[in-house]
Amino acid sequence: MSRPPRLCACGVIVAAGAICACQRDTIRARGRRHDARRPNSRQRGYTRQWEALRAEFLRLHPACVMCGAPAEHVDHITPHKGNPALFWNWNNLQALCAHCHNSVKQRQERADE
Fold this sequence. Notes:
The protein has a two-stranded antiparallel sheet. The longest helix has 17 residues, at about 20-35. The protein has 2 domains: about 5-35; about 50-110, His-Me finger endonuclease fold (3-Layer(aba) Sandwich). By secondary structure, it is mainly alpha-helical. Helix content is about 45%, strand content about 10%. The chain is extended. The chain is built from 4 helices and 4 strands.
């Protein structure tokens, strides 16, 4: 059974599960505002030292812990939020594929907030 279309706040009828153009613009604008306030990767600790640790971790853990696909990202299990002890803790790291890192893990973190 499929869901019926819905009416967006802007008055446009949108297919079930789809995003209206006005919602897409709002989401993009929110992302741009967030990126403008966020420190760059080097300022957040992702330095050459991190790159070396990341390469070693992926060499030892080549598969995604969630789905078993080849891992591309080293993720902090508990978000470090600038805490160096959590950032560098080997036991706080996990190998993830791009899909799991960019969708599954992000959804989990948003739910935990």
